[in-house]
């Protein structure tokens, strides 16, 4: 599988500029061009998909770079450590979002039950 940057980006469900950005950040290699056209292979695509999945899991680009570097050296302990740290950060964020949801549900109920005066939702946000 040999792809131009456009086909490679499409296969990875990203834009061409995203591919170039990842290359500048050292997450993706910039392949050598043959006759002025750079070609991407299946390994490049595997790496691109990994980057996207890791971002979805909440890893920063720096953490993703560390994971990619660890993949080459097979340092499972460090990879587990990074994953556990990400899990803890996600747990904190989920708790924050759940608290925000409960607060908004309460405000929405208060807004629905009151017929006069300012809306509690608008009032709580300082409007």
TrEMBL record:
The keyword Repressor applies. This is Mercuric resistance operon regulatory protein. Residues 80-107 form a coiled coil. SUPFAM superfamilies: Putative DNA-binding domain. Mediates the mercuric-dependent induction of mercury resistance operon. In the absence of mercury MerR represses transcription by binding tightly to the mer operator region; when mercury is present the dimeric complex binds a single ion and becomes a potent transcriptional activator, while remaining bound to the mer site. PROSITE patterns: HTH_MERR_2. One of its GO terms (biological process) is response to mercury ion. Residues 1-70 form the HTH merR-type domain. Gene3D superfamilies: 1.10.1660.10. It comes from Pseudorhizobium pelagicum. InterPro entries: DNA-bd_dom_put_sf, MerR, MerR-type_HTH_dom, MerR_fam. Keywords: Activator, Coiled coil, DNA-binding, Mercuric resistance, Mercury, Metal-binding, Repressor, Transcription, Transcription regulation. GO terms for molecular function: DNA binding; DNA-binding transcription factor activity; mercury ion binding. Pfam families: MerR_1.
């Amino acid at each position: 599988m040999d792809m131009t940057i456009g086909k490679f980006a499409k296969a990875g469900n990203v834009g061409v500029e995203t591919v170039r950005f990842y290359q500048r950040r050292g997450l993706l290699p910039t392949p050598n061009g043959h006759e002025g056209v750079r070609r991407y292979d299946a390994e490049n695509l595997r790496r691109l998909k990994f980057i996207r999945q890791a971002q979805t899991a909440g890893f920063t680009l720096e953490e993703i770079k560390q994971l990619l570097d660890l993949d080459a050296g097979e340092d499972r302990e460090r990879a587990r450590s990074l994953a556990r740290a990400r899990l803890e950060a996600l747990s904190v964020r989920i708790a924050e979002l759940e608290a925000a949801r409960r607060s908004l549900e309460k405000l929405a109920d208060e807004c629905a039950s009151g017929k006069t005066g300012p809306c509690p939702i608008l009032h709580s946000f300082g409007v």
